[in-house]
């Protein structure tokens, strides 16, 4: 089976930033996000056995969602300087693995992932559609809307970066209360505190799930608004109609971003490229080098030597890293 793993780069970076202890390069620059990101790539390669890998990142500029709603994500705290400084280092490391990167001004990483996933799910065969299954790696629940059993699954870390769970349609329904295709409708009614849009005031999860189970979508709810017996709920829906429709637009991951995905460019046979070794040596990541080249006997002595040297210089940090991964 040809399996494409799509990594939500920003989601993995944020998880690494909060999950790992501070770690610096020999030049004194923070690199713990890079360490965590590489650890996740190695784990993914071992656990999911992809034939293809690609990574999507957010861009720093405003997106079309911010143009639609000025309050979109405005409550989120400003990125720390030691987070920002590691973004280009993560990009450099991903490129060293020969893994393609997708990002575009005006769109989020989710939209890159949505566009690629949609192209694969709709594929009928041929060079441009040679992938059988997509597995999206993220900690963002919004991505669950893309799940389609057998064709598109989501792998979400559950404990730091070391453990995760694979979600199909049934798993999404158990967690969210609705099938993947209705997640955007659920968010439209409930709102989303993390993205800072309100939804319909007074409509909580239970009511939203009940309405969607009965009517099937936000649009169908409003087409049958007169049939809603609960006058309090009906009044809230009428008052919040514009907010609900806007929320659905904001929640919907785009599948039409103007990007070109070439499966052959994302094909991966081995992660052990000469370029990535140079990067890991530069950052003094001996444990990652050892994991990456564990099957290559010629690298064992070098990796062991580097591990010994690093432990001598950073005994506590090295021990913490081994415990986490």
Features:
325 residues, alpha/beta, Rossmann fold, DNA polymerase, domain 1, 3 domains, six-stranded mixed β-sheet, 17 helices, 49% helix, 10% strand
The CATH class of the largest domain turns out to be Alpha Beta
* Largest sheet properties: 6 strands, mixed
CATH superfamily of the largest domain: 5'-nuclease
Q: Residue ranges: pLDDT <50 for 5 or more in a row?
A: 296-325
Give a description of the structure:
The chain has 325 residues and is of the alpha/beta class. It folds into three domains: 3-178 and 254-266, 5'-nuclease (Rossmann fold); 180-251, 5' to 3' exonuclease, C-terminal subdomain (DNA polymerase, domain 1, Orthogonal Bundle), CATH 1.10.150; 284-324, no CATH class. The chain has 17 helices and six strands. It has a six-stranded mixed beta sheet with strand order 3-2-1-4-5-6. A hairpin with a 3-residue loop joins strand 5 (152-159) and strand 6. The protein is elongated, with a radius of gyration of 22 Å.
